[in-house]
Amino acid sequence: MIKPKISFLPEDKIEAIHTASLKVLENTGIKVESKKALDILKEAGAKVDYAKHHVAIPRNLIEEALRRAPKTIRYAARNPKYDFMLDKRESHFCADGGSPFTLDWESGKSRYSTVADVARCSIIADYLEHVHTVSLGSALDVPEPMQSIMGMYTRLSNTEKHFTAGALTARQAQYQIEIAAGIVGSRDELRKRPIFSTAICPISPLSYSNGRTEATLEYAKAGIPVIVWTMPMLGETSPATLAGAMVVDNAEFLGCLVILEFANPGAPVVYCADVGTVDFKTGSGIMSPEAYLMTLGLTQLAHYYGLPTQVEASCSASKTPDAQDGYEKAILLITYMLMDPAPDIILGLGALEGSRMTSAEALVIDNEIIDYALGYARGLEVNDATLALDVIQKVGPGGTFLGEKHTLQHFRERWAPKLGDMDSFEAWEQKGCRRLDEIAHEKIKEILATHRPEPIPEDAQKEISRILRRAEIELLTKS
Questions:
Q1: Stretch(es) of the chain classified as CATH 3.20.20.480
Q2: What is the pLDDT of residues 309-324, one digit of tens each?
Q3: pLDDT score at 97
Q4: Residue 255 · residue 298 · CB < 8 Å
Q5: For the segment 342-370, what is each residue's pLDDT rounded down to a tens digit?
Q6: C-beta separation of 123 from 158 below 8 A
Q7: 109: which residues sit within 8 A by CB, 6+ positions away?
Q8: For residues 191 and 391, what is the distance between their CA atoms, to the nearest angstrom?
């Protein structure tokens, strides 16, 4: 199969960004609020100023961390049939992120996300064939100390696929790990088959908060894959030049990688490239071609390191599933899927407003956009059978290929939409002139009425209920 491919930065430019990142870590350094992480860095050989929470990381520690980091990672799932590997062979797709808002699927209005939203979107993601990992919505209608735990439990209950969770403290992370271990049978089994992953977002520029860092140390110790999701903003929390922003982004990733690999050698870490751009008139973040150009280059840098990769490339600035939402996602998806190798995970299905809002309709439509993009990225075959000289000779000038055996053998290879309309205008009118978002809305109703993910086994559910009660007593009492 001959596949179209995209190449961007030459290797000498990739090496230039890498070298600049090393100089930043050694000379400028990073700020680390966690004393536990500072102790790890001090013991590893970094220059640590405890009073200022400042760390200078020499080149040899970064090189050692890169050697220790696994080059492939298993993403397991509650149902083993959904397990997959991050091994640079193909892209997998993640439904959204922990968006604080949702586009209400009944009223069409934006509002804060709830446990019910997390459950509903997880069921839809569980149904959709191109969703491999689920990270939809936030449980903002429960007390803050329990939000991350309830969000994690709700995803776990409503999908059999791999999912992503996060925590603001080490204790929250410990409860999540305990719940997941209860599902797979033990902590040792969870290390072999991590059914969820997590993300840490450094505070740009070059800073790491106490709670998130210590939560991440707990995940890494348990063998949970950690996505280091750096998000500097061009001209605000990074230089205004694209290359300078990429240096800050990469330095933030490498700094976190050193912490995790010296805390737990061999900790599974995923490189997530995501540099943001801003509207300098207002200071607000915007979606722009420059942002994804930087992400494209940083993905190449991650491949230069040999590390598993994630990019946010199925996301739109639009506030509703409209033409803007469609063209932004289609351009980005196809671009990243044509990389060689392509990113292991492409994030953003169902995301609107720059990943601040989740839409169930957008999620269903994005699944179809991926289906189309996969058809494009698949490429074509050139051999005796596909050149089809025999059937061309048989049909000849002015004939038709419709009734030929060759056509019957191959016509099913052609792509066909599941939601999109390919009819004539007259046929479309006869069907009610429905827009794509209306069709997606009807599909949501069908999914929620008919699809039932396999429930958590009763004995595991009883144990999880006990864990949740303990978490509520401890965390809510302290708050």
A1: 65-377
A2: 999 876 788 999 999 9
A3: 66
A4: no
A5: 999 999 899 998 888 999 999 999 999 99
A6: yes
A7: 103
A8: 55
Chain centroid to CA 29: 28
- The hierarchical CATH code for the domain 65-377 is 3.20.20.480
C-beta of residue 177 within 8 angstroms of C-beta of residue 133: no
Handedness of CA 284, 287, 293, 295 (dihedral sign): positive
The angle at the Cα of 339, spanning 337 to 341, to the nearest 5 degrees, equals 105
Residue range 436-462: mean pLDDT, rounded: 96
In this model, does residue 426 exceed pLDDT 90?
A: yes
CB atoms within 10 A of CB 401: 14
CB 237 within 8 A of CB 204: yes
For residue 413, pLDDT over 90 is answered with no
Taking the C-alpha atoms of residue 256 and residue 21, their distance in angstroms, rounded to an integer, is: 13
As beta bridge partners, residue 112 has 101
Report whether the peptide linkage leading into residue 205 is cis, meaning its omega lies within 30 degrees of zero.
Answer: yes
DSSP string of 30-68? EEE--HHHHHHHHHHT-EEETTTTEEE--HHHHHHHHHH
Residue where the block lists tokens 């995501």: 274
DSSP 189-234: HHHHS--EEEEE--BTTTEE-HHHHHHHHHHHHTT--EEEE---BB
Residue type, 433: C
pTM, two decimals, is 0.94
Q: Specify the residue for token string 């959904």.
A: 82
Q: Is 276 helix (H, G, I), strand (E, B) or coil?
A: strand
pLDDT digits (tens, 9 = 90+) for 68-85: 999 999 999 999 999 999
Our measurement of the distance from residue 110's CA atom to the centroid of its chain's CA atoms, rounded to an integer in Å, reads 23
Four-CA torsion 289, 291, 297, 302, nearest 10 degrees: -140
